[in-house]
What does this fold into?
Amino acid sequence: MRTQVAIIGAGPAGLMLGRLLEQAGIDSVILERKSAEYVLSRIRAGVLEQGSVDMLRNAGVGARMDVEGIPHQGIELSYDGKNQRIDFMERIGQQVMVYGQTEVTHDLMDVRNASGAVTIYEAEDVALHDFDSPHPRVTWRKDGVAQELTCDFIAGCDGYHGVSRASVPAQAVKTFERVYPFGWLGVLVDQPPVSDELIYAHHERGFALCSMRSHTRSRYYVQVGADEKVENWSDERFWDELRSRLNPDTAEAMKIGASIEKSIAPLRSFVAEPLRFGSLFLAGDAAHIVPPTGAKGLNLAMSDVKALGAAMIEYYGERSPAAIDDYSNKVLQRIWKAERFSWWMTSMMHVFPESGTFGLRIQQAEFNYLAGSVAAQQSLSENYCGLPD
Ligand code: FAS
Ligand code: PHB
It folds into this structure.
């Protein structure tokens, strides 16, 4: 097989990149190790920055989001029972869109299927070859039959545990990582959200988040130990723990029910540098990971492929390598700013037992400064709603 761009991974990064290239008449093949059903079964992000909303609309994939998505003009922070609303619209005149990653992925899959572009699901043992040359190759097995794809570029959109970054010689890539001593236990439930907006809560028992997917489906999280196991958490235990971390009125108003999904996500901050290795480019979670506190993960993946897609379109259109040569430096600027914000929000809102009483006072001071400062609320707002590209 032959294509212009081989894309590894059919998550939001790979699918959006494929769409941007297809709109420019550039051929791509996506290789995904799981089935489409499995990819859609993973419950991930819930909040889209305006930049991601614009990308979906410009890619002709925004119609369902514009009907089912819920614009949000602020969030609620709850700190040991004290509430503080951050009004994005009042502070910076912007908003975000609540529309689940599952739906984004579904919409991107549908438009790719309709275009006839090739996506190979359940591709086994994907391997990257000769990306240090202008003639890279990808091999895999499908139904036991060995396959090969030759291409001009490989886009590694295969997430943190993917094969792309792992294929780069260790001495060629520098990694930066912080692993947090806790994870997020998340529950999806078909009950109306407890609040019109997201509630990020700090409590001495741990962080909690009240989010949603629609007016009838909610998404809730509690901070749990890094070694916690989901099988230790009955629905009843989860609801009791969640409500114990929220202010009494919110806890009282919460509508609980049987979980339709329950999982624990580990939290880490991670960046690989650089993000280009000859004909191989890394984008999305293959390149970086942020703790979900700042709702940046999916949005960073989108901004990565916006830059990578534009660079590849420039290369094929003008035969200019300028933008592909600048890709890594360009996106790393924005990646590190999102890493900073996600680390900052995680540091303020979670319980870090090892930080002691001094650490707790610093967290309280951080929140009190935020509650009393328009400038601080503007800063949180512009980071949460999305910094400029
Ligand atoms: P993805 O991981 O989504 O997609 C990579 C794809 O590559 C997958 O489909 C995978 O199967 C495939 N792949 C992997 N290895 C392969 C191989 N060898 N060959 C072929 N294909 C391969 N972000 C938020 O903003 N908010 C959240 O609440 C949030 N919650 C999260 C919870 C969890 C458990 C995880 C893991 C992440 C969460 N994230 C969240 C971040 C998440 O949304 C990512 O940022 C987003 O999925 C990034 O998209 P991709 O880069 O496309 O990577
Ligand atoms: C979610 O709805 O899954 C969600 C929302 C905001 C976050 C993290 C997760 O910061």
In short: The mean pLDDT is 97. The pocket of arabino-flavin-adenine dinucleotide (ligand 1) is lined by residues 8-14, 31-34, 39, 44-46, 101, 123, 126, 157-159, 162-163, 265, 284-285, 292, 295-298, 301 (CB under 6 Å).
